[in-house]
Write a structure and sequence with these properties.
The chain is mainly alpha-helical and about 375 residues long. The chain has a domain at about 40-80 and about 115-305: MFS general substrate transporter like domains (Growth Hormone, Chain: A). It is about 80% helix and about 0% strand. It is elongated and about 125 Å long. The protein starts with a helix and ends with a helix.
Amino acid sequence: MLNLWLLMGIVATFFLITISTNGLTANALLAIFLGASIGVGLPSCLSYFADSTTVENRGLIGGIIWSGVGFVVLALAFLIGPLPQWETVVALALWRLLGTVGFPILNRGHVQPAPQKSPKYLEIVRKREILLYWFPWVMFALINFAETPILDIAFNSVFGPNFFEFLQLAEFAFIGIFAIMGGAIADKEGRKKVVIAGFIMLGIEYAMITVFSISLITGFLFLTLDGITWGLLFSVFFTVLWGDLGENREKEKYYTLGGLPYLLAGFLPILIRPYAEGFSTGTAFSLASFFLFLAVIPLMYAPETLPEKTMKDRDLKSYLEKAQKLVQKKTEKNEKRDMEKTKKENEEANEETQESPEDEEARKLAEKYY
């Protein structure tokens, strides 16, 4: 299934060459095919990732993957950005071909687990833990994509055209850095804390733009906070969380539910852009900040998906390591003290047995005459 999906992606990428010569109907069909090339296999791909990792290391590995994605996207943008359309398409297709060829090689020896069959979609969405994570994720996706055209107009009106696109591209550097950090923290402290931190930072980001006028400083802060937020949420919310919730069952349906809000909300910028200039930026950004902070409330009641036993075992291991270091340090201190004491006793003994000049002279006289 995954091999077929990867091959489908290569074909869809090559078809991009024909966009400029196609009619409206052909481009609409191509858009459907491109969407299918992403959506059909993405849940299976993420499910494969979840089945290939354990709950103890899933966050870190997911963070490493998204870190690679961030830096690779940044590198490809600079390398192939200046190229003409057909050369860009060929470069992207060759990149996807590399993944298609590499996957079977890397997959050799991989033993596919036999998970339990997943329940129906209706049964999944009725679960409390699913809803407590799913509703904030839906709210986040709607706010993010609804605000994108408004942010575009606000920043470009101050700094000139294409400035916001530059910010979005530069964010991938921060995503690459903080995805690993978010994944590592999620494996140690839990997924929930990382997700809440991401939502709070995004809320602060919009509150900052509301209070302060757009400038280079606010632009840099927006770039930093937005990059950190996406690094945390991509590595944990999008990649790890739904696999945790799936537990030992088939996880495609869980990842489908997790991916749908984000993918479907991608249409919002197209719908809102024609009317974006009529919105008050202050009102739009303050509402975004308010609803993002509101989205944190369900997360406060959501269960932690990292097992409590795992966190306790990790804490116990940490305590034992600290205790061992303290014992070793104390032992070394005692050994050093004993060595110094022994050395001092030996020196005192040597001083007691050492002859005085008078004793030495008397001994020599005795040896001479007796």
